[in-house]
Amino acid sequence: MPAHDEPLLTVDAHGQVVGWSVAAEHLFGRTAAHVLGTSVFEVVGSLARGRAWRIVPLVREPRERTWGVWQYEDKAEGSAGGGDKDLLGLGEAILDAVFTQADVGLHFLDPQLRVVRVNPSAIGIRGISLENVIGLPAMEAYASLGMRIDESMLREVLVSGRPARDVLLRSRPPADPDREHVFSVSVYRVRNAAGRTLGLVATTVDVTARERAQARLRLLHRAREMIGRTLDVERTARELVDVTVPAFADSAVVTLTDAVLQGKAPELAALNGEMLLRCAAAGSTRADHPPPPTGSTLLPALFGPKLPLSVTTLPAEGAHPGSAPYGPRLVAPLSARGQIFGAVAFERRRGGEPFTPGDVDLAKSITTRTASSLENALRFTREHIVMTSLQSWPIGQERQTQRAAEIAQRCRPGGSGAGSWFDALPLPGARVALVVGQVERPGLSAVATMSRLRTAVQALTTLDLDPHELLARLHSTVLRLAREQKSLQGSIDEPTVHCTIAIHDPVSGRLDAARAGRSLFAIVRPDGTMDAAPLPMGPLLGGDGPPFACTSLVLPEGSTVCLASPAATREQGPTRRSLAAALAHPDHGPQQMADDVQHLLAPDRVLLVARTRHLPPDEVAQWNVPPELQSAGPAREQTQTRLQEWGLDIASSTAELVVSELVTNAIRYGAPPITLRLIRGETTLTCEIDDAALAAPHPRHAKATDEGGRGLHICATLAESWGVRYREDGKTVWAELDSRTTGPDAG
């Protein structure tokens, strides 16, 4: 029996020392740090002394056999030698135990790299004939296995003594010629007690399962990195093919339903698995079996009897008589949350390795990832369609707008849903409002907010507010939308908005403008001089709020006003020099200027370029009205005369009555100076009365016995529309008559 329960040293199947006891340190004078992991054949040759040895297989580690080495105190129980002879006996005993009992392949090569000994595991398991390898050079002996032995590596180990560990070699062994195996080879030098090199010991372990598992993990990692990067349905299908061919299969065909390809919601998974599928992407390494063309409808035979609802393997067979036969196949649905997007079919060449359970698990992981990416891409596609439809609006060039300015509009697409918008809105008195805005934080919610704000701007302009007051009202609207969004969606990102509003009056040439945020705003005068910053940047709507920067300018006819939504950063926007180079050309028309500025903008930004116009003198009539009630009569006469000169098809009595009531109201309740202005339109007549009082007129409901109080009520009844706009020094009450409703022949 051994003198100690613990062995002096432990050796594994690769011939390495894996255990070194304290007794071994005292006996041999070497610490575990210097011995562990070293080839036993080198350790044995350098021991100081020894006696009798016992080598016993250990069963404590069933997955990899190890051997324990004990020393007997009584020489009679062991071999009766001593010194170097005993040490040689130990080395031979260990070598013999490892070679006869190890589960791994062991090969002993002499200094000339000829095969001297091969253990039974290497012979029986791999189908190697002993007669065909013993005595042959290692490179020649293993060439029949398809193994390329690196002779330089073997000689390096032989000369230097540094082991070569875990060198991977691939071959198709005679015992399993249809399947490629991967072997891990480790090579160690063997020396005797005198230090003479005896040769090399090479261990071979079949690590095919390990390498395949690692290859599947690498492929899965690549799939997670490569699939779903583009948020595009067809490109996602293409990415699936690129990842799996040829790493997983020799060919792959990805099919999608017509609904998914059209950007619609996917279908629910049908119990019978029958639905129309079209090829979205395909790839193959087989010249005799080309993939189907993209867009083609595929035969059901590709997926077996019916479309499977889970990952399924199919046997190798022919698709139909006369066609190229199928190799091993694996088909899988592309589905998520009960919705099916399509299916994918993987195929390996005929005679290739069949798909294993590990391959099935890998295919399930990859297709699940792809289905999730398709769902994200489809959701993005639908949202992109909504955003595009909301943002792809042309400005209607109404005749009244064209009278005030010649407008060019541009939208540089980008697809991120930046929430940019522009508008050119006609206002009473032949004026036009130019609006450019952008919601921060792009996305579908930004586009929705933009759409609601655009509607709010159009509604607020009917109130005839100055631009800075209009921005203040719009700021309150943004705050209300933020509260709604936070309460309904729990969002903490409250929207903020850039917005610039400019109102041009073609009668006076006056431009009133206000700015929230940092939208681009520039003015070019007819002489070519440019003001790139007529207004400083102001706080964002939904941010710090009023007051907003505002200004009033009188522009000569032919001036150009340029408005654009801002870039995400100042670095992305146009520089002042590049903007001046594009705009400072008064001989260029608005369309050409817009083309020159558009390429300076960041994606998803919009641009308005407006060339101002003044109304001709023969389209405007204006008189000073004395603050006397008798002034109403001359005002009616002047109106009748002007209507005859203009030839407007508007009932003279209607126009005279409206003018009379406006003038009388201004004399009674207003303050001098009082001015009457008539503006001719193509089918309209705008009557305006200015006075210096800031009191707001409002219609009264007069009693039957009252002699007055019906002026504004009469105007509201006879006119197409009416309203009041305020200035710092007074107000303007206006009414618009339309020949289509107030003409001599109107209803």
Describe the structure.
This protein is α+β, with helices and mostly antiparallel strands and 747 residues long. Strands 10, 11, 12, 13, 14 and 15 form a six-stranded antiparallel β-sheet that branches. A hairpin with a 2-residue loop joins strand 14 and strand 15 (339-347). It has 20 helices and 30 strands. Residues 74-88, 319-324 and 702-707 have low confidence and may be disordered. The termini are far apart.
Summarize the structure.
The protein has 20 helices and 30 strands. The chain is elongated, with a radius of gyration of 46 Å.
Specify the biggest β-sheet: 6 strands, antiparallel
Overall number of strands: 30
Low-confidence parts: 74-88, 319-324, 702-707
Mean pLDDT: 80
Task: Bin the helical content.
Answer: 25-40%
N/C terminus separation: 128 Å
Structural class assignment: alpha+beta
Using only CA atoms, what is the Rg? Answer: 46 Å
**β-sheet strand percentage:** 25-35%
Count of separate DSSP helical elements: 20
Shape label: elongated
